[in-house]
Specification:
By secondary structure, this protein is an alpha/beta fold. It is built from 9 helices and 12 strands.
C-alpha cells in the first residue's frame, strides 16, 4: 500500500495570481504517483470551509481516501464568524476522512489513529511561568490562536482532552501496527532550536512532551505531525517520526510550488492486506 504524507498546505496564504493552486499541484502529484491513501496532518487553510473544500476535492478527484486531522489554523474563526471552536471541530468530523475520535482501519493489521493534539507548554523554557504562557504574548508577538480559537477550556485542559482521547483509542487497538497522526509535535527534537529568546517562549505552543510517552508506550510504528513547518524525519526507539510541512511560501527554498510539493510529500509503502477503502473503526 502506497501512502502519501503531507501537512501545513496553507493554501490560502500560498495563493498567487497566475500560479497553480497548491491543492491542484498536490492532486496531480497524488494521481501521478498512484497513491492508495493520502494523510494530511493539519493546517490546510485559515478557515474551516476552505479546508473542507480542499479535502473534498482531493478525495473526490483522486478517488482515494484522504485522512486528516485539523491543525490550529483550520480551527481559526477569523472570517467565518463562528464563535465556538467546538462547532468547527464538529464540522470537520462530518468529513469521512477526519480522524478525530474515529480511527481508520488499513486492512487487518494496521490502523491510523489521530487528532489535532494541543499544547501544554512543556516544550517552553521553564524560566517562563504558567502565567507568562497563558498570556500567549512575548517580545511584541501574539500567538494568534489566542485571538481566533475559542475552546471552552484552557490550553492545558484542551491538551488533556486530546491526549486522553488518543490513549483510549491506542489502548483499544493495542497489538495493531499503528500510525499516529497529530498536528502538534510529539517530540522535542522538532521544536525550534535554541538559543533563541523568542522561540524559547513560543516553543511552548508547538505540542507536548507527553505525546512521546504515548507513542513509546503503545509501540507506535509511525508518528506523523506538522505545525512547525519542518521537513524532517527522526527515529525514536521503534517509532519513525515524520514532519512533512509545505509551510508558507516565504519559507520555501524555491519559487516553484511543484518543486516544493515534490520535496515535501513523504511516501510510506506498507505491507497491508485486506484493505477496504471505506472502512473505519469506532
Amino acid at each position: 500500500m502506497k501512502i502519501g504524507i503531507i501537512s501545513d498546505l496553507h493554501v490560502d496564504s500560498n495563493e498567487l495570481a497566475n500560479e497553480p493552486f497548491v491543492e491542484e499541484v498536490l492532486l496531480n502529484k497524488v494521481q501521478h504517483l498512484k497513491l492508495d491513501l493520502l494523510i494530511i496532518a493539519g493546517d490546510i487553510s485559515n478557515d474551516v470551509y476552505r479546508s473542507l473544500k480542499v479535502l473534498h476535492r482531493l478525495r473526490d478527484d483522486a478517488g482515494i481516501p484522504v485522512l486528516f486531522v485539523p491543525g490550529n489554523h483550520d480551527y481559526w474563526s477569523k472570517v467565518n464568524g463562528i464563535t465556538d471552536t467546538w462547532e468547527i471541530y464538529r464540522k470537520f468530523q462530518e468529513f469521512d476522512g477526519c480522524l478525530s475520535e474515529r480511527p481508520y482501519a488499513l486492512g487487518e493489521d494496521w490502523v491510523v489513529i489521530g487528532n489535532s493534539g494541543w499544547y501544554d507548554y512543556s516544550f517552553g523554557d521553564p524560566h517562563h511561568s504558567f502565567v507568562d504562557y497563558e498570556r500567549m504574548y512575548f517580545m511584541d508577538r501574539t500567538w494568534q490562536d489566542s485571538l481566533y480559537v475559542q475552546w471552552d477550556r484552557g490550553n492545558q485542559e484542551m491538551h488533556r482532552y486530546f491526549y486522553e482521547t488518543l490513549e483510549r483509542e491506542l489502548e483499544l487497538h493495542k497489538g495493531k501496527n499503528i500510525i499516529l497522526v497529530t498536528h502538534m509535535l510529539s517530540n522535542v527534537n522538532f521544536t525550534v532550536p535554541l538559543p533563541n529568546p523568542q522561540w524559547a517562549y513560543f516553543n511552548a505552543f508547538l505540542g507536548s512532551r507527553e505525546y512521546t510517552d504515548l507513542y513509546r508506550k503503545y509501540d507506535v510504528r509511525y508518528s506523523i505531525m506538522g505545525h512547525v513547518h519542518y521537513r524532517k524525519q527522526f527515529h525514536d526507539h521503534e517509532t519513525e517520526l515524520i514532519c512533512a510541512c509545505l509551510g508558507n511560501r516565504q519559507e520555501w527554498r524555491t519559487t516553484d510550488v511543484r518543486q516544493e510539493i515534490d520535496s515535501t510529500l513523504r511516501i510510506l509503502e506498507l505491507p497491508v492486506t485486506g484493505f477496504i477503502p471505506t472502512s473505519s473503526v469506532e
